[in-house]
Amino acid sequence: MINIKNSREIEFLRKSAQIVAESLLLAQSRIQPGVRTIDLDKEISEYIRSKGARPAFRDFHGYPANICVSINDQVVHGIPGPRVLREGDIVSVDIGVELNGYYGDAARTFAVGKVSSEKEKLVRVTRESLYKGIEAAREGNRLYDISYAIQTHVESAGFSVVRDLVGHGIGKQMHEEPQIPNYGKADRGPRLKAGMVFAIEPMVNMGEYKVYTQDDQWTVVTRDGLPSAHFEHDVVITKNGAEILSLAASEEI
Ligand code: MG
After folding, report:
1. Beta strand 233-238 pairing with 197-200
2. How far does the centroid of ligand 1 lie from the alpha carbon of residue 115, in Å?
3. Contact at 8 Å (CB) between 151 and 138?
4. In sequence order, which ranges of 51-164 are alpha helices (DSSP H)?
5. Where do the domains of the chain lie?
6. Is the distance from CB of 95 to CB of 105 less than 8 angstroms?
7. Tens-of-pLDDT digits for all 253 residues of the chain?
């Protein structure tokens, strides 16, 4: 069942998502060659706690860090550690927050210094595909209209969408129904209704879509070793389209 949130719940979700948005801006301001990913983790978790919230990924299914930092061929769930960011890397930062029992979850891929034009294109297309998905997230549409919009945009650019990982509903649980694949046929799935809150999150590979999980049991990497990018927003379906909850006040779409 897909939960419909009331306006009070949406306000709580907005607060959590706003802390995530500000945390991503903090990450953006810190990302440069020479930075260790564990130091990003530490600073962002301190920021989240300074807001009275909790880094929600910590201990989620046993996850051993506060945020996920995934570099180049790492798709998602990269565990922060001593690895240092290098010029030309792309780095995906995924952050979850819980405040007052409500969750926020968003991600973004950043360029470290100057990156190749192919990586730049991958990041741009992935970001655009998220916004295509968000445009399709409107009352009266059906769930896989979102999936179709994302897949179509990605594949027309020559990239592929990861199949094994999907977006999700979000609320008092970080992962609620429905699962939101980033591929699918239009005009299929449940009807979208105002008050549904989704974390839409295309994960896009430069090469083939296949991925696997490394021996640390977390880090998902591309099978062909080519780079991957990831953008995620929390959105609420309203009577007039989707509203993005995880966009900071200072940001433009
Ligand atoms: Mg998510």
Report:
1. antiparallel
2. 26
3. no
4. 117-136, 143-156
5. 7-244
6. yes
7. 899 999 999 999 999 999 999 999 999 999 999 999 999 999 999 999 999 999 999 999 999 999 999 999 999 999 999 999 999 999 999 999 999 999 999 999 999 999 999 999 999 999 999 999 999 999 999 999 999 999 999 999 999 999 999 999 999 999 999 999 999 999 999 999 999 999 999 999 999 999 999 999 999 999 999 999 999 999 999 999 999 999 998 887 7
Please state which CATH class domain 7-244 belongs to. Answer: alpha beta
Which stretch of DSSP H or E encloses residue 234? strand 233-238
> Which tens digits make up the pLDDT trace of 40-49?
999 999 999 9
Query: CB-based contacts of 133: which residues, under 8 Å, 6+ apart?
Result: 146, 147, 149, 150, 182, 200, 202
- CB within 8 Å of 181: residues ≥ 6 apart: 144, 147, 163, 166, 167
pLDDT tens track for 189-242: 999 999 999 999 999 999 999 999 999 999 999 999 999 999 999 999 999 999
Rg of the Cα trace of the chain? 17
Distance from the alpha carbon of residue 168 to the mean position of ligand 1, in angstroms? 7
Q: Which pair of tokens denotes residue 95?
A: 């952050």
Question: Which stretch of DSSP H or E encloses residue 62?
Answer: none
How many angstroms separate the alpha carbon of residue 250 from the centre of ligand 1? 22
CA of 154 to the centre of ligand 1 (A): 19
CA of residue 188 to ligand 1 center, whole Å: 22
- pTM of model > 0.90: yes
